[in-house]
Specification:
2 copies of one chain form a homodimer. Chain A is mainly beta. In chain A, strands 1, 2, 3, 4, 6, 7, 8, 9, 10, 11 and 12 form an 11-stranded antiparallel sheet that branches. In chain A, strand 2 and strand 3 form a beta hairpin. Chain A is globular and about 55 Å long. Chain A starts with a strand and ends with a helix. Chain A has 5 helices and 12 strands. Chains A and B meet through strand 1, strand 3, strand 4, strand 5 and strand 9 of A and strand 3, strand 4, strand 5, strand 9 and strand 10 of B. Strand 10 of chain A pairs antiparallel with strand 5 of chain B.
Chain lengths: 238, 238
């Protein structure tokens, strides 16, 4: 699945999805989708679907990390603060592995652009795999750009810092359940020229690699605070 | 840039490119392209273009590898064989780093799905960066699937092995020249269910990361040799 975020969405009006059934094959089927609001494309996506098949078999090892049950939940980490982040990821039980959430680290000296979290939905999901794939597609966007910001003295609400997801690509390798623990191993190899790349790998608790993710994000530093220019900057950005 | 290969191309007829100017922004512009032959889509692509910008700066280190001048050219490696591979990459000067080209390794026991090559064009290119970007887009597809096959006892001409590029994604981080040495560091994190994922990072000789690449490829093992069934299998595959 490959997608671009083109324009800001409007939560107050419906989204029209235009689907191009570009290819129906015997073992591969491909779709192109454009999401439209107010007559303009806000998002476009291409997706390829593959039947079960047989071939070469290998897999990289899962990183050696603490088990999720040994790590504090997000609510406990943020419990003593009034920051809104504690509620952001409410549908998920999230367990951060060192160095922990960016928002709780004032000193980022020496931090690498690497972030590992365990996550699962707070409740049980039906057995339909499509539900689990959609839930993980949603979750896969939550922490990626955070990873690129980890080594840097910026916050997402800084008036001179603009961040946004630009594209999003996912490869689903195997079935999995989103209501069982998944390890999301994220790393940003580069940030340059106002954009950062972040890649992620999602493993089941027993070490099977189930999804790979790559996202490029806007990580722009403004020479002047956004303030009154926020709208103009937003238009120039997205 | 995100693309899917949908159907086999026909080198005997022109390709019609249908371009959708989906978004013209101030700092980002996006295009969707479908390549058509015989009235059917053979390839589709989305590409996003970004003006020069300023933001967070970090980069992973280039792997520690031998300099290209210390490694034998491909022609020398294949010179004593009559295999056609020696001519395949003719427009490029290619220097393989250990373990060397897959075709020269009969015993692949213990090989990892990791491949590193230096490459540059055989001659000088004009200064237009678009030429250099296009040349590297072409070259970036040459060795990726080889990387996934490295640990396995298969060859691309085996009648029971079917391999093909399924998608191709590239992120251009910085300008570079394709007629100067570039290190292509490739790794396949997974092969499963008839598909393999391979990621690549392209560095200049002085260690700047300039391009990131991800490709998924078909790596299907057939239960019966292709032989007479080649056409049917091809239709089922692509």
């Amino acid at each position: 699945m490959h997608a671009y975020f083109l324009r800001p969405g409007d939560p107050n009006v419906p989204i029209l999805y235009e689907v191009d059934r570009i290819r129906d094959g015997r073992s591969f089927t491909t779709r192109r989708v454009v999401a439209v609001q107010h007559g303009k494309a806000i998002f476009n996506l291409s997706a390829s679907f593959h039947t079960d098949d047989h071939g070469l078999e290998h897999q990289m090892a899962m990183p050696d990390v603490p088990e999720p049950s040994t790590l504090p939940p997000l609510q406990q980490l943020f419990g003593w603060t009034d920051r809104p982040e504690a509620q952001w990821h409410h549908p998920f039980d999230v367990r951060h592995i060192e160095p922990g959430p960016r928002q709780l680290r004032r000193d980022r000296t020496g931090l690498k652009p690497i972030q590992r979290v365990w996550f699962r939905t707070d409740g049980h999901l039906p057995d339909d795999f499509l539900v689990h794939a959609c839930v993980v597609a949603y979750a896969s966007d939550l922490w990626l750009l955070d990873t690129a910001a980890l080594p840097h003295p910026v916050n997402f609400d800084d008036p001179t810092f603009m961040a946004a997801s630009l594209d999003h690509a996912m490869w689903f390798h195997r079935p999995f359940r989103a209501d069982e623990w998944l390890l999301y191993d994220q790393e940003s190899p580069i940030a340059h020229g106002g954009r950062a790349l972040v890649s992620g790998r999602i493993f089941t608790e027993d070490g099977r690699l189930v999804v790979s993710v790559v996202q490029e994000g806007l990580t722009r530093l403004l020479t002047a605070p956004r303030g009154n220019q926020a709208r103009a900057a937003q238009a120039a950005t997205t």
